[in-house]
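Sample pair:
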Amino acid sequence: MILVIVLSALLFAGIFLGLNVLTQHGRSVKVPNLAGLTLSQADAKLREVSLKYEIIDSIYSEDHKPGTVVEIIPSAGKPVKPNRHIFLIVNATSPKPAVIPHLTDTSERQALATLKSLGFVDISVEYIPGVYDGLVQGVRIKGQGKVTQGERVPITSPLVLMVSKVGAAALTDSMGILVPDASADDLTAPADSTSPAPAPNPAGATEEETTSNDDESWW
């Protein structure tokens, strides 16, 4: 009986010690500061403290160098157990693209909200002639041509919403692109400054005869 108790105690002690070794109970390392480092630099720094990394997301920001670490989870200085994964958010090397959705004949407000929800921030509106006010007729990149539904466009692209407006003037620039806010007066042809030539007198008629004929017309 005593032997059974001793063996049971030894078994539990072995299990407890084994768990401590496996879970590295009581051991911790601090997460190093990886902000602004490239992935190779971050990996080397993590290996120094027996940590690994995993990329969970990427963003595009002109405030950070492409391909560098923007955020780490857990944050720098936090104690963690060795061999654990540190999660990284990195700055992409190029802007994230988004697919242009169907916008034709939707309202100006709805189209603006849809594009902003996709990540586009540089959006302007250009009014073009139309039967109805406020309906989107197309999208183009400023200084370039139109983009079509389903086309992938970098979210940093300056988009121009072409919106219908009754009475809007249809002027184009040297690239054949509609010019916004054109006045209808801009389309009016300049008046001829020369006075119309007087009607010629009938052949052989004198000025007095012409005047006389005009006077008789009142009768």
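The longest strand covers residues 52-59.
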